[in-house]
Specification:
The protein is an alpha/beta fold and 362 residues long. The protein folds into 2 domains: 227 residues, Aspartate Aminotransferase, domain 2 (3-Layer(aba) Sandwich), CATH 3.40.640; 120 residues, Aspartate Aminotransferase, domain 1, CATH 3.90.1150. The protein is 41% helix and 16% strand. It has a 7-stranded mixed beta sheet with strand order 1-9-8-7-4-2-3, with helices on both faces. Strands 10-11-13-12 form a 4-stranded antiparallel beta sheet. α11 runs antiparallel to α12. The chain is globular, with a radius of gyration of 21 Å.
């Protein structure tokens, strides 16, 4: 029996390359783009193990759990690691990065997460990129959560390795990701004898077998359904207009923060300053002994399926995360989430709803 999701013609090299070009346009880059056939941790680890190694000194900016993960990979790859740790309720500044680079002139690799969805903060990549470029280090940015939710200008910002995934603001699947690679990043990978080769983590394999071959023959069978879903995500963003998609995410974040501030004295924004708050997720701190995981459970019991989760690990008792990316960046969903939180807190939700609606309109 025929099935539209199973009986598909093979994905051609030409179509694969066309999707790459659309990703490059989304990132505002003329660099090579490699669409990796797996979740974004695949190219992130590939970038770190290729761009740093024995003899390298890496500045690893830690503003959330993914920065912590990168530090582990960098050390495992043999690099000397300088962790620049910032409280999870804030963002790193270009001045912080400049001071760290000045203190360690040998730093030749910088890793940074643009937006940490897990902690709800976002970092000023444009300003940091200027500092890193002046220092001469290779600059890697995890933009998995930020792509399509806030501006991302890879070339203008001097980003050498930029990793994205489709599963957040792009509104797509988790099983496909992409990375843009600058010429100097390619040189760094080629000169690093420890960079992955003949490996699923290898970006060099894609360059040698795909890019340098004129993109005429794919190195292996692509994840076809995920590639088609990525293509559909790009089409939807192009049709709506990237600026409109970004504006919708910003409005969702502003509405959620405003509503939460008016909700009750039992919660407050986890990220202190609006300018440091990510547009893909709003994190809230519970007060007065309210357990975050229990509050989330009560809210979801009232309305299952809301994009509402407790913080991970040690944050489970004090942090709530309201996800508003992709299709969840929606005014009705923001209001429903605030109503459920208000009911779970035995608080009047109407002031929160009014504040959220006013913020969205603004």
């Amino acid at each position: 029996m025929s099935h539209p999701l199973l009986d598909l013609p093979p994905l051609t090299a030409a179509r694969f390359a066309a999707i790459e070009r659309r990703v490059a346009a989304l990132l505002h880059t003329e660099q090579d783009v490699v669409i990796t056939q797996g979740e974004a941790l695949l190219p992130l680890e590939g970038c770190i193990r290729g761009g740093a190694g024995p003899g390298s000194t890496a500045l690893n900016v830690v503003t959330g759990p993914y920065g912590q993960t990168f530090g582990g990979w960098l050390r495992d790859a043999g690099a000397t690691v300088v962790d620049l740790e910032v409280p999870f309720h804030a963002a790193v500044s270009a001045q912080d990065v400049a001071r760290a680079l000045s203190a360690r002139p040998e730093i030749d690799f910088v890793s940074l997460v643009h937006a940490e969805a897990a902690t709800g903060n976002t970092n000023p990549v444009a300003e940091i990129g200027e500092v890193v470029r002046a220092h001469g280090a290779l600059f890697m940015v995890d933009a998995v959560a930020s792509v399509a939710a806030e501006p991302l200008l890879v070339d203008a910002w001097g980003v050498d390795l930029c990793v994205i995934g489709a599963q957040k603001a792009m509104g797509g699947p988790a099983g496909v990701s992409a990375v843009s690679v600058s010429e100097r990043a390619w040189r760094r990978l080629a000169d690093n004898p420890a960079a992955p080769r003949r490996s699923y983590l290898s970006l060099l394999d894609w360059k040698e077998r795909w890019i340098d071959g004129g993109r005429r023959a794919l190195p292996h069978a692509p994840a076809q359904l995920e590639m088609l879903a990525l293509e559909a995500c790009l089409e939807r963003i192009e049709e709506a207009g990237l600026d409109a998609v970004i504006a919708r995410h910003r409005a969702a974040a502003a509405a959620t923060r405003a509503g939460a501030a008016a909700l009750a004295a039992a919660v407050e924004p986890y990220v202190y300053r609006d300018v440091d708050a990510a547009p893909v997720a709003t994190t809230l701190r519970t007060l007065d002994g309210v357990a975050a995981d229990e509050l989330v459970a009560r809210a979801l019991a009232l309305e299952p399926g809301l994009p509402l989760v407790a913080g991970g690990g040690a944050l489970a008792k004090e942090m709530i995360r309201v996800n508003h990316y992709g299709g969840d960046a929606d005014p009705d969903l923001v209001v429903r989430t605030l109503r459920a939180l208000g009911a779970a807190l035995d608080a009047d939700p109407e002031p929160a709803v009014a504040a959220a609606e006013a913020a969205w309109r603004a």
